[in-house]
Write a structure and sequence with these properties.
By secondary structure, the chain is of the alpha+beta class. Helix content is about 45%, strand content about 20%.
Length: about 350
């Protein structure tokens, strides 16, 4: 099937869905299913119709160019279309790319202090605030699920649930090692220290995605403790769940209720197991792909935040922005994320063309 035939087929299906929607209004379940498919197809259908309208307009203008009185006006419009048509065609090709099935999912983000002691823990706290502010700017809901702090403003590790439209699609490239270069407040000699924190972004999984057998779990309950080991709870409400087949361990103690801690721990466990499956599939796919922005491997160094120079560099796409403060405030983070998305789309378009 050539490109034009593919577009014709897509538009025909779009019109078919429109007719089916009118006929299924009395069946709520079927109507909801068709509505989602229709909504998903609307952007590309509109873009195809816009492109074809411009193609027709170009043909008409080429005829007008032969008219001496209209030639100058027609040439200006023709120049505009010559610039617009390749852009529209590229947008259609991007919309036709196979979609990541997890892009519309909510996400769980996990941040852990790496090398660098307290400075790494302070940087981990900076990253947590950055993603919280970014989520607020995107209109997403950010819910802190677990936080283990150092008592000095840093975090050893933290996890949060982020829900909203297109969360995973935007955050999935954030997984990896984030490196910071700055002079710690305790450094009297003014030397720059290098520290790191790891970020893992997991697509949130439902029970239907990952079925966990009760027999595969070992659940331990114990008393919650705060930073420095002091008790924050007098009951055994903290929960540690071990998934025996994989050895994955999740611990949750932020809630006073054992039941709530268990529910949160299972949510994180489900996401980690789903991500494990996803990573295996990605590895199989990437073996046949020549280019990709990032594997999502949390051991891969992806970005450096250099405070003395006020810059942030993403090593995967060699992009440097001198907007460190605005990125850490969440305001300019989208500029970097959009560049990563564009690079990934370009790489996938290149793969299709080979």
């Amino acid at each position: 099937m050539n490109f034009e035939e593919k577009l014709n087929q897509l538009l025909a299906h779009f019109e078919e869905l429109r007719e089916q929607l009118s006929a299924t209004m009395e069946d709520p379940a079927e109507f909801a299913k068709l509505s989602k498919e229709y909504s998903d197809l609307t952007p590309i259908a509109e873009k195809i119709l816009e492109w074809r309208h411009c193609v027709d307009e170009e043909k008409n203008l080429k005829e007008l160019v032969s008219d001496p009185e209209l030639k100058e006006l027609a040439q200006d419009d023709l120049q505009r279309l010559h610039e617009q048509l390749p852009i529209l065609l590229k947008e259609i090709q991007v919309l036709l790319l196979p979609k990541d099935v997890d892009d519309d999912r909510n996400a769980i983000i996990e941040i852990r202090a790496g090398t660098g002691g307290e400075e790494a823990a302070l940087f981990g706290a900076d990253l947590l605030r950055m993603y919280q502010r970014y989520s607020e700017l995107q209109g997403w809901k950010f819910e802190l699920m677990h936080e283990s702090d150092t008592g000095l403003g840093g975090i050893k590790e933290a996890s949060a649930s982020i829900s909203g439209k297109g969360v995973f699609a935007k955050l999935k490239f954030e997984s990896g090692v984030h490196r910071v270069q700055r002079v710690p407040e305790t450094e009297t000699g003014g030397r720059i220290h290098t520290s790191a924190a790891t970020v893992a972004v997991l697509p949130e999984a439902e029970e239907v995605d990952i079925h966990i057998e009760e027999k595969d779990l070992r659940i331990d309950v114990f008393r919650s403790s705060g930073p420095g080991g002091q008790s924050v709870n007098t009951t055994d409400s903290a929960v540690r769940i071990t998934h025996i087949p994989t050895g994955v361990v999740v611990q949750q103690q932020d809630e006073k209720s054992q039941h709530k801690n268990k529910a949160k721990a299972l949510k994180i466990l489900r996401a980690r197991l789903y991500e494990h499956q996803r990573a295996q599939k990605d590895a199989e796919r990437s073996a046949s792909r020549k280019s990709q922005v990032g594997s999502g491997d949390r051991s891969e160094r992806i970005r450096t935040y250099n405070f003395p120079q006020g810059r942030v560099t993403d090593h995967r796409i060699n992009l440097t922005l001198y907007k460190l403060d605005r990125i850490l405030e969440g305001v300019a983070l989208d500029e970097m994320i959009q560049a990563l998305i564009a690079e990934d789309q370009a790489a996938r378009l290149g793969d299709l063309g080979e």
